[in-house]
Amino acid sequence: MRAYFEQLLGNSRQQKQLPFIFPFLISLCSGAIFSLALAPYYYWWIAILSPALLYAVLHRRSAKQAFMLGWAYGLGLWFVGAFWLYTSIHVYGDTNAILSVLMIAIMALVMGLFTAIQTWFYRRFFPETPLTFAPIWIVFEWAKTWVFTGFPWLFAGYAFTERFLDHYAPLFGVFGVSFVVITLACALVEIIKGRIFWLIPSGLLLLGAWGASHLQFVQPKKAPPLSVSLIQGNIPQDLKWLTEYQFKTLMIYANLTRSEWGRDLIVWPESSIPMFQTDIQPFLDAMNQQAKNRGSAWVTGIPYWDVTGSREVGTPLYYNSIMASGDNSQGLYKKQRLVPFGEYIPLSGLLSWVLPALQNDPSMSGFSQGSNNQKPLMIKGHRLAAAICYEVAYPNLTRRNAENSDFLVTVSNDAWFTGTAGPMQHLQMVQMRAKENGRWFIRATNTGVTAFIDSQGHIVKQAPIDKEAVLRGDLPAMQGETLYTRLSDWPILLFSVLLLILGWIYRPRQVDVSFKSRR
């Protein structure tokens, strides 16, 4: 049996290696090109090529060398893939260009450590095979959702949103899709090396995607769909929180909504009301009454001050929230995942010199974290699960919110990243969350991308970016649960751990010898 698994897990042949500078540069460049596989570029095949190159250059490298190669890959991945942060830091954070680029480089170096540690573990403890490289990749993608609050971006599985392999999403989530992508990438390298055996598992994975496409976990309820209007106000980020612009902001949204009263549901985006509810109660009462008179539900993003809770704990409790009111509708959702340097500044007193303009932004004053057991919003007898902006990047959080829901809503303000790939990457994540949970997702944003997304993750309707817009559509309630909604990430994580255990037990003994001779 050992001989069988050693053959399956691979064995390196002695070959002359290239000078280290060449694999280092290949790693850096292969990481840098990865984001071209994602929105808005959609070159999905790069999601195969990029990790395949990393897998190839790690061949017969020591653990220390693997660490540096992984760090180079991670540096390229995050510096290019998350460069959309430059707009928020430089343009809206009032930080000079050189310091802004330096901050992104530091972020990339820190995030690149995930890949560095990942590749170090791979070459230190396991044989060179797709059956160890892919599971380690998945474990570290998952770690990015919770280590230091998480930065769950640039996952391999997102490249296949609406592309065949995404049929694994309702079964095992985005990490299941990523596992298949990375396995196929590594298998390609093995096949090029002449190990034709890898055509078999590759074919089985593709056949599995075809089989998964015929599974049906959810179906529409018999109730008629809701008529929905999503309002996109297109308020510039540099004006959004100015006191003198607040009244104009409210008038823009009220005017865009005037023709929509009478529809079942009207949704305004994140913080579309740029004041606490305690400061604007007459306006809220008037809107609520107008919604009731016309038979509409009204959902809006608003900063919420928990006055009672603040008195009890002795400190102000402010929440980034979604509020539902109007005809037969109610509820309040408080954001659970806050964005560092976006909704609060860690060590703000020490870092005030870094982002001076943001110190006067009310959205940066220190929002509190909502609890993880909040009820869905109630909309005309339906349960509307909510997510605010960045939260949709967290698969398990969205999954928890989606439990016992009929449909999903997310509100966002991507004006921070106008003109970059950030908003389109963000939308792609919403598509994956819809596919994972088998629920329609409506997305109302300040500047775009406002959209209707069906239960298969397909964009049904989409508003133009950076323009005032009203997007109308129908929203069917769904029933049933996908396997992912029921079991979360545990199946793919446990399977990955099992493969790593087998890889450790049945590793060729020369892996240990090779390491000892090079450390």
Describe the fold and architecture.
- With 519 residues, the chain is of the alpha/beta class.
- The chain has two domains: 19-216 and 488-510, no CATH class; 227-478, Carbon-nitrogen hydrolase (Nitrilase/N-carbamoyl-D-aminoacid amidohydrolase).
- Helices cover 45% and strands 14% of the residues.
- The protein has a twelve-stranded mixed β-sheet with strand order 12-11-10-9-8-7-6-5-4-3-2-13. The chain has a two-stranded antiparallel sheet with strand order 1-14.
- A hairpin with a 2-residue loop joins strand 5 and strand 6 (329-334).
- The chain crosses the membrane at residues 20-36, 42-59, 66-86, 98-122, 134-156, 168-189, 196-217, 490-506.
- It is found in: Cell inner membrane; Cell membrane.
